[in-house]
Design brief:
By secondary structure, the protein is an alpha+beta fold. It folds into two domains: 29-272, no CATH class; 287-357, Immunoglobulin-like (Sandwich), CATH 2.60.40.3080. The protein has nine helices and twelve strands. It has helices spanning 7-14, 30-41, 55-59, 138-144, 189-202, 225-237, 242-255, 260-263, 266-272, and strands spanning 109-113, 133-137, 152-158, 164-168, 180-183, 287-290, 298-303, 309-313, 319-324, 329-331, 338-346, 349-357. α5 (189-202) crosses α6. Residues 1-16 have low confidence and may be disordered.
Length: 358
């Protein structure tokens, strides 16, 4: 679970990338705010001739969709194969690996509709909307199919990075649904949630004409109480990442609109409220980082867990330093003065802190 406390800090830094005045009319609360955001972002230019489904292949070759966050090897960043704390089982490095046919993981990558395209009959502009169409391994995408996202209790299939398909866990924060779901790893749960909240907002004027297991038939709440709580929980436990910020900025140049819930994560709770409870998945993972601001290129970390790795990102989402099995005192590599994000991993738990280097 990454970035537990970072959502509001990141939004203020990301704001520098937002066009001036873009959210000036987003002044309401509740579903009024949701409609105000819809009116701001409903001008995306996706069509068969502009920002088309085929154009996504080119978009996925851009740096913002590549791994500059984990191995930092420039391979495609695939939410279904990326292993945040270890070597990936395979990598997609060139366009010849586009699907195509596949029989196993690693054969090819394709274009994963986080909201299945069957929901909207593969129509534009939804069909090529890069805010919720992401690159993913073809085999894993096929295993997910059209399943809703949820918390798997008993898995009947698991990918190499731990994404899984199985019966929804009908208890805790996911109580209320008993059919099969698909669950991404903790590192990308918030990414999925914010993509789905975007979908509910951008297409609120059409969504009541579509049918899907996650929907409640309204254009306001959109998701059933169960799925709303799942998404709110994932959003809270996996706040906005540097990858999402960079990708949001790039998609804006591709189709002329933004995901407001990456720019302003606080909008989600302002509209949909807070999750009912996160006690069953919050770990007692605390990290103290000091001093901050950082002077003389050194700071200290104190945690109740053994820290496995520390990744430091600049505000453009690029990894500028990686430290494995760090000591309590961290020495920076002569980083220029400015804002950075520190991703701290310990025993499959993660958090992100914002630092200032002086």
């Amino acid at each position: 679970m990454k970035k537990i406390i970072a959502a509001f800090c990141i939004s203020s830094v990301a704001f520098a990338q937002i066009p001036a005045g873009y959210y000036n009319t987003a002044a309401g609360t509740g579903y009024t705010l949701k409609t105000q955001l819809h009116n701001i972002i409903d001008n995306n230019t996706n069509s068969s001739g502009t920002a088309s489904y085929g154009d996504l292949w080119d978009l996925f070759t851009e740096t913002q969709f590549r791994d500059t966050y984990y191995e930092n090897d420039g391979s495609l960043l695939d939410l279904y194969s990326e292993k945040p704390t270890g070597a990936d089982s395979y990598n997609f490095t060139n366009t010849s690996q586009q699907c195509g046919n596949y029989s196993s993981e690693g054969d090819c990558y394709n274009r994963e509709h986080i909201m299945p395209q069957s929901v909207f009959n593969s129509n534009y502009p939804m069909y090529s909307d890069a805010h919720f169409v992401l690159p993913s391994d073809g085999k894993v995408n096929g295993q997910r199919g059209n399943l809703p996202f949820g918390k798997v209790g008993t898995a009947n299939w698991t990918s190499t990075n731990g994404s899984k398909r199985g019966t929804n866990l009908n208890s805790g924060y996911s109580a209320g649904y008993t059919s099969d779901v698909f669950e991404p790893i903790d590192e990308f749960k918030g990414d999925v949630a914010r993509a789905l909240f975007y979908f509910a907002t951008r297409y609120e004027d059409q969504i009541t004409s579509w049918s899907y297991a996650m929907f409640n038939g309204t254009s306001t709440q959109v998701y059933t109480d169960t799925f709303k709580n799942i998404l709110l929980t994932w959003h809270q436990l996996d706040p906005v990442s540097a990858y999402e910020i960079a990708k949001n900025n790039k998609v804006y140049t591709f189709q002329n609109n933004r995901n407001p819930f990456i720019d302003h994560p606080e909008y989600i709770t302002t509209i949909w409220g807070s999750p009912l409870s996160t006690e069953d998945i919050y770990a007692n993972f605390s990290v103290r980082l000091y001093p901050n601001p950082i002077k003389n290129q050194q700071f200290s970390l104190v945690s109740n867990y053994k820290i496995d790795a520390v990744l430091i990102y600049n505000i453009n989402g690029q990894v500028v330093q990686k430290i494995t099995n760090p000591f309590e005192t961290i020495t920076l590599n002569n980083l220029p003065a400015g804002f950075y994000f520190v991703n701290i991993t310990a025993e499959n738990l993660q958090t992100v802190k914002k630092i200032v280097v002086e």
